[in-house]
Inverse folding.
């Protein structure tokens, strides 16, 4: 039976200094009943203030801000509120930007050339804890993650390592659940355990850490 219980609107904060762009994006998102735009900031300082005041579930953070690097701001927002899902909003597809966002604990990336419907769905996916990155992007980035001597993740179970390999292929919770013949809630529970054991703040950071520590083989996961 389909769950028809209405979910609360996703609280979203937009942080971008391109006024025309961010105001247009705010109007588009606000038109969707599933989203509640709680604030729009043009600086990192205003973003931090609004995040503290409104406790958004998702923050779309521009990479280029006048007073702070967007990656640094995302890391600060995540440190202040671990439940916040930060998404890097950028026109850049440079690896250094994407890798920096992963290290900051971002849920993924949203390029400014996306269609409106894609932006809405990306926000909702981020709120559900999904990783916002294409398999092609992930495959390109994983080889850039240098391996280190294993220091975390030794207590990961076989199932949790299996989950990490599926995540490295860019699969969603639903897709993984279907392939493993498990419920989505079970996958979410496994994911929370993985995040705790790897001290990660997002799926992308978990995969990044797993590759760096040699826990999964990105070549085999592709």
């Amino acid at each position: 039976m389909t769950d028809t219980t209405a979910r609360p609107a996703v609280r979203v904060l937009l942080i971008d200094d391109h006024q025309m762009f961010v105001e247009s994006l705010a109007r588009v998102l606000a038109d969707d009943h599933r989203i509640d735009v709680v604030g729009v900031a043009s600086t990192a300082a205003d973003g931090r203030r609004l995040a503290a005041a409104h406790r958004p579930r998702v923050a779309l953070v521009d990479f280029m801000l006048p007073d702070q690097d967007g990656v640094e701001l995302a890391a600060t927002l995540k440190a202040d509120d671990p439940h916040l899902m930060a998404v890097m909003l950028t026109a850049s597809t440079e690896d250094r930007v994407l890798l920096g966002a992963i290290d900051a604990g971002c849920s993924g990336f949203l390029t400014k050339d996306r269609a409106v419907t894609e932006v809405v769905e990306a926000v909702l996916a981020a709120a559900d804890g999904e990783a916002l990155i294409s398999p092609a992007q992930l495959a390109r980035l994983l080889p850039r993650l240098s391996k280190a001597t294993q220091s975390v993740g030794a207590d990961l179970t076989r199932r949790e390592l299996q989950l990490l390999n599926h995540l490295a292929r860019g699969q969603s919770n639903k897709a993984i659940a279907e392939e493993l013949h498990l419920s989505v809630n079970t996958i979410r529970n496994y994911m929370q355990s993985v995040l705790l054991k790897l001290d990660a703040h997002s799926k992308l950071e978990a995969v990044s850490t797993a590759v760096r520590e040699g826990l999964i083989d990105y070549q085999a996961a592709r």
